[in-house]
């Protein structure tokens, strides 16, 4: 049985990777599908191509995972998949469940597509792509919240902010060394 894990993955987080890694053990094949929505054009931090590259790099250790993209209704994409393929969705909290339940019912109603839910590990229940983007925009350390490929891409995207933070840290370190007696 195959699964399709759709999302914007802007960027992929450690929570996504947790769900994906566990799903890769359950399903024969998992397709990470970057859904692109023309109405959301310009609202993503990373371009579609950048997200695809990040995903490919982040999943190289998972041989039964492939990366794809699709625009339009997910049920139309599912109709093109191998019969019996399911939609895979990760859940972090009750609020996710309420939203995802509605979407799962709609996907079954309009496209006869089944949805399987995997709970993200508790340690990732607070991590979302939007939170990671915000922290990174201030030069914060997100390395524990995202795979290396995402962390590197975020550092490149916000290189000026990270450089400024590093310079401030270095200045503080030098000031502390000068204040210490006996030096």
Tell me what the structure shows.
The protein has 183 residues and is α/β, with parallel strands linked by helices. It has a domain at 2-125: HUPs (Rossmann fold, 3-Layer(aba) Sandwich). The chain is 48% helix and 17% strand. The protein has helices at 14-26, 48-58, 74-79, 94-111, 129-137, 148-157, 159-179, and strands at residues 2-7, 29-36, 65-71, 86-91, 115-119. α2 (48-58) runs antiparallel to α6 (148-157).
Secondary-structure topology with pairs:
Layout: E1 2-7, H1 14-26, E2 29-36, H2 48-58, E3 65-71, H3 74-79, E4 86-91, H4 94-111, E5 115-119, H5 129-137, H6 148-157, H7 159-179
Parallel strand pairs: 1-2, 1-4, 2-3, 4-5
Family: Belongs to the bacterial CoaD family.
Pathway: Cofactor biosynthesis; coenzyme A biosynthesis; CoA from (R)-pantothenate: step 4/5
Enzyme class: transferase
H-E string: EHEHEHEHEHHH
Query: In which order are the strands of the major sheet placed?
Result: 3-2-1-4-5
What would you call the shape?
Answer: elongated
Count of helical regions? 7
Helix share, percent: 40-55%
Distance between the termini: 66 Å
- Unreliable sequence segments: none
Biggest sheet statistics: 5 strands, parallel
Radius of gyration: 20 Å
**Number of beta-strand segments:** 5
CATH class of the domain at 2-125: Alpha Beta
CATH architectural grouping of the domain at 2-125:
3-Layer(aba) Sandwich
Brief descriptors of the model:
183 residues; alpha/beta; Rossmann fold; 5 strands
Give a short synopsis of this structure.
Belongs to the bacterial CoaD family. This protein is of the alpha/beta class. Helix content is 48%, strand content 17%.
């Amino acid at each position: 049985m195959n699964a399709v894990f759709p999302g914007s993955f802007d960027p992929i987080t450690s929570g996504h990777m947790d769900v994906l890694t566990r799903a890769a053990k359950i399903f024969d094949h998992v397709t990470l599908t970057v859904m692109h929505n023309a109405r959301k054009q310009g609202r993503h931090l990373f371009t579609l191509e950048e997200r695809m590259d990040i995903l490919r790099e982040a999943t190289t250790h998972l041989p039964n995972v492939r990366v794809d993209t699709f625009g339009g209704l997910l049920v139309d994409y599912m109709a093109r998949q191998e019969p019996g393929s399911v939609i895979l969705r990760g859940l972090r909290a009750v609020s996710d469940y309420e939203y995802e339940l509605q979407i799962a019912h709609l996907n079954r109603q309009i496209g006869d597509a089944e949805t399987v839910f995997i709970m993200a590990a508790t340690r990732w229940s607070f991590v979302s792509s939007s939170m990671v983007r915000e922290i990174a925009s201030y030069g914060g350390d997100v390395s524990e919240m995202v795979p290396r490929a995402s962390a590197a891409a975020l550092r490149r995207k916000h290189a000026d902010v990270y450089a400024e933070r590093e310079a401030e840290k270095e200045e503080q370190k030098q000031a502390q060394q000068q204040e210490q007696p006996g030096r």
